[in-house]
Amino acid sequence: MLRLLGAAAFAVVLAACAPPPAARGDGARIVSLAPSVTEILFGLDAGARLVGVCGHCNFPPAVERLPRVGGYLSPSVEAVIAVAPGLVIAVPSPGNREAVRAIERAGIPVLVVGDRTLADLRAAIRAIAAAIGEPARGEALVARIDGELDAVRRRVAGLPMQGVLLVVGHRPLIVAGGGTLQDELLRVAGATNVAADVGQAFPQIATEVVVARAPDVILDAAMGTEEGGRDLFAPLTTVPAVANGRVVRIAPDALFRAGPRVGEAAAALATAIHPGAPG
Amino acid sequence: MRRGRGAHLTPRRLLGVLAVLALLVVASIVAATLIGPTSASLARALGPDGAGTPDHLILFRTRLPRVLLGAVVGGALACAGAALQGLLGNPLADPHLLGISAGAAVAGALVLVTGADPVSPVVPLAAFAGALGTMALVFVLARRDGRAAPTTLLLVGVVCNALGAAAIMLVNALASYTQAQGVLFWIMGSLSAQSYVLVGLVAAYALAGVVALGRHAQHLNLMAAGEEGAHALGVDVERVRRTVFVAASLLVAAAVSVSGMINFVGLIVPHLLRLLFGPDLRLLLPASFLGGAVLLVWADTAARTALGANELPVGVVTAFLGGPFFLYLLRRTLRRGSA
Fold first, then answer.
1. Is the pLDDT of residue B259 over 90?
2. Chain A residues within 8 A of B38 when measuring between CB atoms
3. DSSP readout, B13-25?
4. What percent of chain A has pLDDT over 70?
5. Which of B61, B192, B195 is facing A173, going by the closest CB pair?
6. If contacts are CB pairs under 8 Å, which of residues 49-108 in chain A contact chain B?
7. Mean pLDDT across chain A, nearest whole number?
């Protein structure tokens, strides 16, 4: 109870101190409905303003103490209203559309930011920074991320371009296609996505397509969640990635989130794709 | 469905029809193996240094096992459909429509989200239990005097499917995001898990089911004319029912556990074959297996190639073939039922 009072008092003080928000809404009590949004808020040093996060928000560790207001794509309108936010930030999705409308009808301003590409990420950071009255921090965060991405580009500059397949699911085989954040990060990391032209963001492909596209490296982001796929690629002996032992498991979180850790994700990709390159 | 158009079943006719269908299966497998989203040359694959080429890998290590898996799964589903239609005396009986596939899928999904290895034998065993449980439920609820009236059967199927769908949604809601995604795709149906070992495993399950069903084909024929009469002729009606029940569950479970929900194969194939060759189950059961193999091989070929490298779930293809066919059958059955 004391802690709650303290938090409330803190919020009141913050609300009093904060400059008038640039966008609609009150940035002192924020609910984030997406992991990427939560990470952006912490990236803007505004994590303390969060009063609720979605069930899938797991980074940074500080989010563990925050109330959960439902799933990533299925927020609980009641839970959101219960924490009395001044601003709710969501990503566009058919799954949360109705809930977002209901939250707006309840008189709570909602900011919806894109989460599909690097351009979306920059726009999202700027929009959120403006909404919480910290546009300068937004510019600084964008500059930091761009700097990190440039550093990765410099690291791999001049190295031979590698054909990469980024695997998202094993059964069936789902991979990252063109137009995705992952496709962009692969390019930053000195690679071409061999599935870029399959024709969908995350297409399902037949195993023979892997053989035909013959990637130099297979990055497996599904291995942690689908144990059955351990030997999935082993029989594909003519694929350079398999022949040269370049099927690499990668941790998925940062790579699948249009958040401030994309530079980190690109660096991890570069390390996996060009192991010999100077760090 | 009892007015068979086919002539009296002689061994010669039986073997003749099955031989033609078997040839069709082999031809379909060969043709489908040569068709795919990527180009692979058979000449190069079979050439002097063929074994090490991508062409060989594509044709014989990835595409052929997938086509074979499709044949076995399609055969299992169609054979189960034929047996259920015979046993329930109802042309609308189908593993999918009765919710038996859903029962298998729920159990499979449940095991999958607990982190089970998708290729471990636990998944088919769970699916078997799910199929068996659902089939028992359907029987208890839908049968009356050895028959299941079309409307009763449809209602039971609708309810079982709804319960299955709800259970799957519940499993999904409680699972992590990535697990839920995996279950969703698994349920949509795919033959992409290809290895000869898996094909062999499923084929062994399916063979056991088909043999068990085949041994009771004549008993089922007699039961179709009336269970009392069959009993008088010395048929152990309860035992036949139980065996068919378990064997059909086994077939459905084997299919669902490797390929998720592939709908309507069990409905379309026995029907077409019954129209062609008559209702005698001694022919209809093995013929349905072969016919189902042909249908699913081609449905999967369409799923693999329709959008280039971007694959469609094969369940989508069979549903688009089977949905309209089912509506046509339903209209016909109900019209005749009310006449």
1. no
2. 208-209, 211-212
3. HHHHHHHHHHHHH
4. 87
5. B192
6. 56, 72
7. 87
A24 CB-side CA count, 13 A? 9
Kindly determine whether residue A228 and residue B181, on different chains, have CB atoms separated by under 8 Å: no
Residue with tokens 């297979």: A218
| B3: confidence class by pLDDT, cuts 50, 70, 90 | very low
Interface contact flag, A203 B309, Cβ < 8 Å: yes
- Model pLDDT for residues B200-215, shown as the tens digit of each residue: 988 998 999 999 999 9
Identify the band that residue A6 occupies on the pLDDT scale cut at 50, 70 and 90.
low
A212/B311 CB distance under 8 A = no
Closest residue of A to B172, CA-based? A71
Q: Tell me whether residues B54 and A238 touch, CB distance under 8 A.
A: yes
Q: What is the pTM of this model?
A: 0.81
Q: What is the mean pLDDT of residues B191-199?
A: 77
Write down the ipTM of this complex.
0.72
